[in-house]
Amino acid sequence: MRRYSELLEAVERDLVLRDLQPTTADHYRRVVQQFLHFVDGDVAGATSDHARDFLLRLREWGRSSSLINAYHAALTFWFSTTLARPDVMATVPRCKNRRHTALPTVPTVEEVGRIFAATADPFFRTLFQTIYETGLRSTEVRNLLADNVWTRSTEVPSVVPLM
Q1: What 3-state class would DSSP assign to 98?
Q2: N or C: which end of the chain has fewer CB within 10 A?
Q3: Where are the domains positioned within the chain?
Q4: What is the C-alpha to C-alpha distance for residues 138 and 144, in angstroms, rounded to an integer?
Q5: What CA–CA distance (Å, rounded) separates 125 from 157?
Q6: Contact present, 36 and 43 (Cβ < 8 Å)
Q7: Which residue in 90, 84, 72 sits closest to 2, CA to CA?
C-alpha cells in the first residue's frame, strides 16, 4: 500500500503534466486529501461505493450540484490518471446541474410608474429612469459617472457605452 505522502506526490506530478489552472490544481489537491481522509488512506481498497458515498455526503451537507461535479471531476482525474483505475469512477454518476434560484419578480409598468412618481428628487428620478430604460446592472450603476450619460434637452437620457 502506498503511503499518504507518495499518493500526494503522484497527484502533484500529474497536475504539473496536465498543466491545469492553479485554482483547479489546488481544488484537485484538496479533494484528493479529503478523499484520502474519508477512506482512512486505504486507496487500494477504495471502490465506486466509497466515491459515491463521499459525493453523497456533500449532497447531505447541502453542497451545490456544480460543486459536487467539480469533486467528481477531481476524483475522476485522480483515479484515472494518477492511480490508473478508471473503473472506480466509471459508474459514479455526475449530478444534474440545476439552478435552485427563483426567477426575479419583475414589476409591472404601473408599479414602475408609481416608483418614478414617488421619487421627488429629479436627480434620483432621472437615475432610476436611466437604470430602468437601459437595464443597467447594479455594478454598472455603481461605476456610472456623469460623463457616461449623454442627454439632449428634449430626450430621455441615454448611456454612453462604458467599454
Answers
A1: coil
A2: C
A3: 4-90, 109-159
A4: 10
A5: 12
A6: yes
A7: 84
- Cβ–Cβ contacts within 10 Å for residue 52, how many? 15
CA distance 76 to 11: 12
Listed in sequence order, the residues at least 6 apart from 78 whose beta carbon sits closer than 8 Å to its beta carbon are: 11, 28, 31, 32, 35
The CATH-assigned architecture of domain 4-90 is Orthogonal Bundle (1.10)
Helix boundaries (H) for 1-137 = 4-18, 22-38, 48-60, 65-77, 87-90, 109-118, 122-134
List all residues 6 or more positions away from 150 whose beta carbon is below 8 Å from its beta carbon: 157, 158, 159, 160
6 pLDDT exceeds 80?
Answer: yes
Please, what's the b/e burial string for 16-32 (b: 16 or more CB within 10 A of its CB; e: otherwise)?
eeeeeeeeebebbbebb
Sign of CA dihedral 94, 100, 101, 102: positive
Please write the tens of the pLDDT for every residue from 109-160. Answer: 899 889 999 999 988 888 888 888 888 888 888 888 777 766 665 555 555 5
Query: What does the pLDDT average to over 35-63?
Result: 91
